[in-house]
Amino acid sequence: MIIGLTGSIGMGKSTVASMFAAEGVPVFDADATVHRLQAAGGRLVPAIAAAFPDAVIDGAIDRAKLGAAVFGDDAAIKRLEAIVHPAVAEERAAFLAHNTDRLVVFDVPLLFETGGDRRVDCIVVVTAAAEVQRARVLARPGMTPEKFATILARQTPDAEKRARADHVIFTDTDLSETRAQVRAVIACARAA
User: Fold this and answer.
1) Superfamily in which the 30-98 domain is placed by CATH
2) Which of 5, 11, 20, 80 fits as disulfide partner to 25, beta carbons 3.0 to 4.6 Å?
3) 127-176 tens-digit pLDDT
């Protein structure tokens, strides 16, 4: 069974993914995969360098420069996605091919936006109150209210994600309560 784990920026999805992993559930982390593929020697560096030459520093993709190159430019974002998404799909397939566990998690921030919800058996959405989300995001280095608004505009709204979810995990509680919610999802998935 494949659990698709998603949530908008600042909702606590990475924390929840680490809780699944701590419970022994293998987790495919799409963001970590992208970071690895864009690091020095990563297989995406040549293609991204060809499309966005100013984004390469010392043989690696500088994420801040790449972000600046595509920020607010839908055509540039689509060019980047055409490079990144197929490579991530290949990595995800390799993860599945080498994994014999009955239950796995795909940690995908843009699960709905990329159609990934059609490739999973169960959808778990991580959420928090809007004011908690905003405080978390604006505390990040280099984040501005404008950047936050632009990112949110590209993501499926939280209310819609929750409505489409099989399970919703709230992270504006204490960590022990969040962990209990994760364990309940695992128990339900293993019983299915």
Assistant:
1) P-loop containing nucleotide triphosphate hydrolases (3.40.50.300)
2) 20
3) 999 999 999 999 999 899 998 998 898 899 999 999 999 999 999 989 99
